Amino acid sequence: MFKLDELTNSVADGQVDKAAELTRKAMAAKVPAKKILNEGLLPAMNRVGSDFEGGQIFLPELLMAGDAMKASIELLRPELSRKGAGYAGRYVIGTVEGDLHDIGKNIVILMLQGNGWEVTDLGTDVPPQRFCDEIKRGSYDVLGLSALLTFTMPKMPETINILKKAGLRDKIKIMVGGVPVNQSFADQIGADAYGRDAVEAVVKAKELLNK
Amino acid sequence: MQKLTNLERIMKAVHRQEPDVVPTFEIDIDERVINALKPGASYEDFIEYMDIDAVCYHETRTDRYEVLDKAKRIVRDQWGAIKQYSGVSFSIPMLLEPALKSKEDLKKYKLPDPGWPERFKRIKEAVKRFKGKRAIIATTRPFATMRDSLRGQDDLFKDMIRDPEFVDSLNELLSDYYRRLVKNLIDAGVDIILETADIAFTNGPMVALKHQSRFIFPPLKEMVDYCHRRGIPCLKHTDGNIWALLDLIVEAGFDGVHPIDPVAGMDIGEAKEKYGDKICIMGNVDCGNLLSWGSKEEVRAAVKDCIRKAGKGGGYICMSGNSIHGAVSPANYAEMIRAIKEYGRYPLRLN
Fold first, then answer.
1. CATH assignment of A5-76?
2. Best of B158, B287, B290, B291 to disrupt the A interface by mutation (most A CBs within 10 Å)?
3. CB 3.0-4.6 Å disulfide test: which of A208, B85, B224, B301 passes with A173?
4. In sequence order, what E strands does chain A have?
């Protein structure tokens, strides 16, 4: 039986080439792609996420692990059926208008992808109407709004209001996050959840789908 | 105690002595705040009008930019990076594309001119106007330049693991530039150098301590040593939770540390207690929620609290937790300065 621990370790250690090689070997040994994702990659990203939150590793190590995970997922992608086991849901995310910061958002994306989410990244400086148009166009489960600057925070309620006016508010769960954001701000603007960090964002996103 | 000049007040605090009043200045003050409090005033006029103890010239504000697309506000900075000004409001453009996309680009890379005369024009005017009266401070940010303009954050951080020698080469290149820039700034009459590259996030250091020690601190120590040889204090700013970095900051020889970031949960009383005998403590008045949306009473209470915790015996400069950005309520900033002058008079009587 093919052991996936080595793949988990190579992804967690950010060894991009080794992760790709072990993924190829696992696929050649007929290990199902979903099993490789669930038992090889997800434990790696969960370990990396918790080590990052705990201060045992830092952004460089997290980014390298993300690259290793992406290299493996790219190989698995053709085999992974969209709504099969291990598939969490569709997430659209962006940094609100006026704010060009993306470090926190990109960490959240890495963690979501590593946990089976299909993520559409709208980038930074995203106007409220752009979020609305994308949600109208695609079928998403969760919207994530990120901000680093205090003075761009009002773009979050503005986006929620535009979704309300377009009749889309009840069709999607909305999460907010970023340094100046907190739970009381999330409650005040009518968001469904606040993610304090990337690990919590993944937990909360999953909880929202179960509600 | 007899009244000190603004410069003496700052210098006493930087050298961890007790001035007449707790001093104050800011790394940056947004034009909207200036215009609301003193319509039409220049930055320098505003500093005098509010009796702020130092003028501070931010490196990126005096950089050279070439406009590439006026409508989209896209520019090329002096390092060769493509940047964009935000649609809503932000005075420093954000990175779209770094100058060095690969190691190969380094071979043909040419450093900008650290003696570009335009940069020094405003500083020289400030020297004429304020020298000997208010402190003239200039900021530098070598690691931020590497993380931003030169290489971009994600690639730089990955380089630290996959190609550390490349990062060493970038450091060598930048050290050459910053050595000359700092020399030029001091020659022009600057009283204090403030290094402003963030090296921490809200939850802790940006990169592991082994990477901080290899890539970040050696060029900083070189800068501090040079300033000290010239008789100039050197201060360090970094956002984020820096408990794990404060020993390195002290060991590098910095004279002051800003802002003991309240958003990252840093307690200024604890910082004063543990490091107040080694380094001047600066900042900690929250410019996120408090200065933007708090009441005047809350601002006064926060200033009083900071001075009570960090002002004892001097060695404290009361400043915001980052800068006076565009969302700060002008009335709250004015209140902050009033409160510093009121509560910050030595001997402190705050209990």
1. 1.10.1240.10
2. B158
3. A208
4. 89-95, 117-121, 142-146, 173-177, 193-194
